[in-house]
Predict the structure.
Amino acid sequence: MLLKFRPVCICNTIRYPRVKEAIDRGARTIEDVAQATGCTTGECAGERCRPVIVAMLAEAQAKT
Ligand code: FES
């Protein structure tokens, strides 16, 4: 699946590019990403999207 269509937060329909943009703009924690995008605030309270965000943050950190 193309990255731009990859869902991160299914509850709030937030896809990969929006989360990537938040990280590129300085989000460094789950809370930062949640505040910038609304991820983790849906029905599952982040149960499904949290691991994906953690992986994206780790990937971004590995590149710095
Ligand atoms: S998938 Fe993000 S809050 Fe449920």
User: Anything to note?
Assistant: The mean pLDDT is 95. The CA atoms of residues 4 and 17 lie 6 Å apart. The chain has three helices and two strands. The pocket of FE2/S2 (inorganic) cluster is lined by residues 9-12, 39-40, 42-46, 48-49 (CB under 6 Å).
